[in-house]
Every structure is written in C-alpha cells, then in structure tokens.
Amino acid sequence: MLRPQVIPRRRIRIPAALAAATTTAVLFIGVGNAVSIPGKANPASLDSRPAGTHEIPSIARGRYLVAVTGCNDCHTPGYGERAGEMPVSDWLTGQSVGFSGPWGTSYPANLRLTLQGLTESQWVVFARAERRPPMPWFSLKKMSDADLRDIYRFIRSLGPKGEPAPAAVAPGDKVETPFILFTPQTVMTPALSSDRTR
Ligand code: HEC
User: Whose CA is nearest to atom 12 of ligand 1?
Assistant: First the structure.
C-alpha cells in the first residue's frame, strides 16, 4: 500500500559548515579532473551522481501528489476497484470507458503518452487548460508550478505505456465504447411505482 509520507520540500537548508565542505569538495574534484575548456566547468566533474538521481526528491513528491489528488481514480483503469492497490508501473495509462453527459463522451487520457510529447514548461501551461467534465481541470489550474513540475517529473520517470485513450465524442454522436452515464436520474414517483405493483 502506498503510504502518504511527508516528503521534504525541494529547497533544503544546508547547514553552513556542510555547504562549505561541499564547495571545497567540488573545487577539489574540479581541479583534480583538469577541466579541458579554460574558464568553463565540466558538468560531469562537478556532479558524480548517476544521471537523473538529483531529481529523486521531486519525483517522490510528484508520486505523492498524484496519489493524494485522485488522478488515478480516473486515469488508471481498475484503481478504484482495487482500492489503490496497483503497481505504480500501471498508473495513468488512460481509460477506454467513457464518461457521458451533456458534453458528449470524454475519456481520461493516457498521461504516460501525453507527457512524452511535452517539455516540462509546456506541461505547466497544458495542465492548466480547460477540459471536458469530469476532468477537474480547475483544480490543476490552481496547482503551483512546483507541484505541476513534480507531477511531470514523476510521470515522465515511469516512461510511456499503453495505448492512447479513445478520442472524445461530440454530444449526440454514436459512442462505440462502454460508457458511464453522468446524467442525474429521477427516482420513479410513488404513484407510478404503486400503480405497477398493485
Ligand atoms: C473524475 C475523473 C478525472 C480525474 C479525477 C482526473 N482526470 Fe484528468 N481527465 C479526465 C478526463 C475525462 C479527461 C479528458 C477530458 C477531455 O476530453 O477534454 C482528462 C484529461 C486530462 C488531461 C489532458 C490530457 C490530454 O492528453 O489531452 C490532463 C493533463 C489530465 N487529465 C491530468 C489530470 C491530473 C494530473 C489529475 C490529477 C490531479 C487528473 N487529471 C484527474 C478525467 C479525470
């Protein structure tokens, strides 16, 4: 089970002594590696961690945000039915069961594929655009840039998976997939139901 956890904010205060020690170490490595271009530091010599690992706090926070803001409820097939007990590798692959209402029929997108075509900065704009119901786009619109960027880094870290969700269907057009009807239903009046049963 995914346990919500407090993940440290990205800007971590580094004690002065540690910061000084780090600077010394960086300078030492820089000198030791005899940088080839004069006046320009070789990035590889300044950070010996494997590529991408400096993003881990952000990715972990993105995972936490996705888990607690409900993206999986719609964008991950079977997530609700299994009470969220699904491998992270299966998250956000989109849904082929539509949501039908006055807006026509909409399908939660495969975000694993959507994000492949967007840079992080493009995502920050894209994520805030208006969408068809029941996508809570107005909630994404209120998310901070930092939250959206962490979500982006988490989803990108999962890589692409699955097929694109079906295209939205306009109101009145034929729906080819199973769908969930979002129109409020009126309960039968007691007079009508008693006519039938007596
Ligand atoms: C109640 C269901 C629901 C929830 C919860 C939900 N979505 Fe969606 N989402 C949808 C639907 C439906 C669409 C398609 C909307 C359309 O056709 O305009 C969509 C579309 C999107 C799109 C557009 C993708 C594209 O390729 O066009 C993004 C981005 C998105 N959702 C992100 C999120 C994120 C991030 C969360 C969690 C914070 C989330 N959604 C939560 C239902 C949902």
Answer: 108
117 lines ligand 1 (CB under 6 A): no
pLDDT in tens, 101-134: 999 999 999 999 999 999 999 999 999 999 999 9
Query: 3-30 pLDDT, tens per residue?
Result: 444 444 444 444 444 444 444 343 333 3
Say if CB 30 and CB 45 are below 8 A apart: yes
CA of 57 to the centre of ligand 1 (A): 24
Residue 77 · residue 95 · CB < 8 Å: yes
* Ligand 1 contact via 115 beta carbon (within 6 Å): no
Query: What predicted TM-score, i.e. pTM, was given to this entire model?
Result: 0.74
